[in-house]
């Protein structure tokens, strides 16, 4: 049961990362294509909040709580399901922490720039 919960946490973690990374090009593509949903205020606030939280955690030197929860459920590195092996390969990279911190800050800056260039709109 613990390994199943760990896999679910990992899949949630991957979905959040995919949202953070994938939403930015979708906003730019959607703005060019005239898609109104990419200017939805709630969507854009959630996206901005997510990347700012990730960047702030990295700057503070904190580990992602989802990573910590998954590791605790697995009991440390060890046995993983087939899906977990593939999702881990997509989500985790063996690079120095400063690389991730710089990448998160740069990506957050791009999201903030996007707010200025493709502003969200509130419904009246």
Overall description:
- This protein has helices at residues 2-33, 41-60, 65-74, 82-91, 97-117.
- It has five helices and no strands.
- With 124 residues, the protein is mainly alpha-helical.
- The radius of gyration is 17 Å and the shape is elongated.
- The protein has one domain.
- Helix 1 (2-33) crosses helix 2 (41-60), helix 1 (2-33) packs antiparallel against helix 3 and helix 2 packs antiparallel against helix 5.
Count every beta strand, where a strand is a DSSP E run of 2 or more residues. Answer: 0
Structural class: mainly alpha
Largest sheet: none
Uncertain stretches: none
In short:
The protein has 124 residues and is mainly alpha-helical. It is built from five helices and no strands. The protein is elongated and about 50 Å long.
Search tags:
mainly alpha; 5 helices
Topology summary:
Elements (H helix, E strand, L loop, with lengths): L1 H32 L7 H20 L4 H10 L7 H10 L5 H21 L7
């Amino acid at each position: 049961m613990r390994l199943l919960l760990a896999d679910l946490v990992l899949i949630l973690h991957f979905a959040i990362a995919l949202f953070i990374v994938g939403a930015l090009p979708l906003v730019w593509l959607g703005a060019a294509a005239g898609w109104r949903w990419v200017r939805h205020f709630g969507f854009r606030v959630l996206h901005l909040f997510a990347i700012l939280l990730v960047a702030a955690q990295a700057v503070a030197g904190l580990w992602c709580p989802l990573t910590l929860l998954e590791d605790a459920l697995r009991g440390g590195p060890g046995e993983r399901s087939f899906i977990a092996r593939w999702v881990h390969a997509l989500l985790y990279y063996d690079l120095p922490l400063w690389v991730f911190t710089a990448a998160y800050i740069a990506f957050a800056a791009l999201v903030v720039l996007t707010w200025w260039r493709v502003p969200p709109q509130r419904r009246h």
